[in-house]
Specification:
Keywords: Signal. The protein is of the alpha/beta class and 446 residues long. It has 13 helices and 17 strands.
C-alpha cells in the first residue's frame, strides 16, 4: 500500500513517546493475539524455540481492516510452513511464530513496536501498509544493527511500494516482496499502450509523495510508449478530504478523456469512480488498488468493464494450482469479509523459510545472504507464481497481472471478491523481465 504523509515531531518528543510506548509494549504483546477458531495443525516436534516474525501493522484505528487482512495472509503462510514440519536448522526443526504488534497506523507507534520486538530478540520484522513507516523502520534498523551486532534483525516488506526503498534508500537489512510503484506502472502503462481506442488520458492523484510520483512516472512512461497520447488532465487533490468528486468528474468528462490513470486508494478511489460514472463520462480507470478491501463492492456496477487493477496474482488466473491455492485460503477463512489473499505475502514467508534452511541458522546476516539471489520456484504455488530476489537492491522480481472488473459468472470470472458479486478477469500477464526496473542502489554490506 502507499504511504500516508508522515507527521513531524521534535526529536525530544519522539524519544519520550517511544520510551513510554516501548515500556508497555511487552505487556501488551499477548493481548494483541486474537483467538482464532480451529487453528491449522502443526507437525513441528516440541522443544525447540520458535522462530518469531514480528508483524508491525495498524490493527486498530482507521486502517485496521488492512492490518487484519495482512495478518490473515501471514498467519496462513506460517501455518502452511509449520504443517509440513517447520524449518529445519542445524539443531533440528523449529516452528515459525507470528507476533502481532499494533502500530495503530502511526509511524511513531511502529517504531515503538520495533523496539519492543528487538528487546524480545525477534530477528525478523514484517511491515508494509505505509512507505513512510517502512522508511522509518529501515533507518532505525540500519542504526540498531550497526550499534548492536549481536541483536540484528531483518525487515521483510510486503506492501510498501515507494521506489526509493530499493534505490537511494536501499539497505542490506531490507527485502521488498511487492512490486514497487514504477514496476506497477510499467504493467499498467503497457496495458494502456495496447488499447488503441485510448487517445486522451487524464492523470489524477492524491496530493502527497506517492500520488505525485505516480503521476510523474505515468506521464514519462506513456510519453515513451505512446507519444501520440494527449494528456488532457494532470491534477492532484487533497488526501482523504474530498467528499464530493463531481467537480473533478465534470472536468474529466469535459476533457474528452477515454482513460483515467490514478494511484488513488480507499474512499478517494471509490468516490472518484462513482462520480465519473454518475457524470456520464465513458472512461476506463487504470488503478493500483481497485480490486480489494471493499473497493469493488463500493464501486458496484460503475466498475464493470471499466476498472482495471494491477497485482502479482488474482483468483481468476485459472488453472488447477491457482484455484486450489485460492480455495484453500477460503476454506481457512470462509467469511467473505476475510477474502483477501496475496501471493506475494505467501512468497515472502516461503522464501524466508527456505533461506533459514539454507543458512542452517536464524542469524539475520546468514539468512540475508541466503535470500540474496534466491529464486522462488513452483513448489509452493504449483507453477502459477515464481520470482527472484535481486541481490543488487533486494527487490523481488515477479510477474504482474492487469485485470478488469466484471460481474461474477462472466467469462473468465469464476470467483468474486469479498462476496461482492464482482471479480477481476485477467487481461494481460507480464513476465518479470517486462516490468523489471533499473536500480540506483549502492548497498553497504556487513
Amino acid at each position: 500500500m502507499p504511504s500516508a504523509p508522515l507527521k513531524l515531531v521534535t526529536a525530544r518528543a519522539l524519544r519520550r513517546h517511544l520510551l513510554a510506548l516501548a515500556a508497555g509494549a511487552l505487556m501488551g504483546l499477548a493481548a494483541t493475539q486474537p483467538a482464532l477458531a480451529q487453528p491449522a495443525p502443526s507437525t513441528v516436534p516440541p522443544g525447540k524455540e520458535p522462530i518469531r516474525i514480528a508483524m508491525i501493522e495498524g490493527l486498530s484505528g482507521p486502517f485496521a481492516n488492512a492490518g487484519e487482512a495482512v495478518f490473515r495472509n501471514l498467519l496462513w503462510a506460517v501455518e502452511r510452513v509449520n504443517a509440513r514440519g517447520g524449518v529445519k536448522l542445524a539443531d533440528g526443526a523449529h516452528a515459525l511464530e507470528l507476533v502481532r504488534l499494533d502500530s495503530k497506523g502511526n509511524t511513531e507507534e511502529a517504531l515503538a513496536m520495533l523496539r519492543a520486538a528487538l528487546d524480545r530478540r525477534i530477528h525478523f520484522v514484517a511491515q508494509g501498509n505505509s512507505s513512510a513507516t517502512a522508511a522509518a523502520i529501515v533507518d532505525a534498523l540500519d542504526k540498531h544493527n550497526q550499534r548492536e551486532p549481536q541483536q540484528r534483525a531483518l525487515f521483510l516488506n510486503y506492501s510498501a511500494v515507494d521506489t526509493a526503498l530499493t534505490n537511494e534508500k536501499c539497505s542490506f537489512w531490507h527485502f521488498r516482496f511487492d512490486a514497487h510503484t514504477d514496476m506497477r506502472l510499467a504493467a499498467l502503462t503497457d496495458a494502456l499502450r495496447d488499447d488503441a481506442s485510448v487517445k486522451k488520458v487524464y492523470l489524477i492523484g492524491q496530493d502527497y509523495s506517492f500520488g505525485q510520483q505516480v503521476l510523474r512516472q505515468a506521464r514519462a512512461m506513456l510519453q515513451a510508449k505512446r507519444p501520440d497520447i494527449e494528456f488532457v488532465g494532470d491534477e492532484l487533490h487533497p488526501l482523504g478530504r474530498v467528499k464530493d468528486f463531481l467537480p473533478y468528474a465534470a472536468k474529466i468528462r469535459a476533457s474528452g478523456a477515454q482513460a483515467v490513470l490514478t494511484g488513488n486508494w480507499g474512499n478517494d478511489l471509490t468516490l472518484l469512480v462513482k462520480a465519473v460514472r454518475d457524470a456520464g463520462a465513458p472512461v476506463k480507470f487504470y488503478t493500483f488498488y481497485g480490486n480489494a478491501l471493499g473497493a469493488p463492492a463500493a464501486i458496484g456496477d460503475a466498475g464493470v468493464g471499466t476498472v482495471l487493477a494491477v497485482a502479482e496474482w488474482v483468483p481468476n488466473l485459472g488453472g488447477a494450482a491457482s484455484d486450489g491455492f485460492y480455495q484453500s485460503f477460503r476454506q481457512r477463512f470462509p467469511d467473505p469479509r476475510e477474502d483477501y489473499v496475496h501471493a506475494r505475502m505467501q512468497s515472502m514467508i516461503e522464501m524466508l523459510a527456505r533461506a533459514l534452511e539454507k543458512a542452517g541458522t536464524a542469524d539475520p546476516v546468514a539468512v540475508a545472504r541466503a535470500l540474496e539471489g534466491a529464486r522462488l520456484d513452483s513448489k509452493p504455488f504449483g507453477g502459477f507464481h515464481s520470482g527472484t530476489m535481486r541481490a543488487a537492491d533486494h527487490q523481488f522480481q515477479q510477474p504482474l497481472i492487469v485485470s478488469v472488473m466484471e460481474k461474477v459468472g462472466a467469462p473468465g470470472v469464476r470467483f468474486d471478491v469479498e462476496g461482492s458479486g464482482y471479480g477481476f478477469r485477467v487481461v494481460r500477464q507480464l513476465k518479470p523481465v517486462e516490468v523489471e526496473q533499473p536500480t540506483t542502489c549502492q548497498m553497504t554490506r556487513p
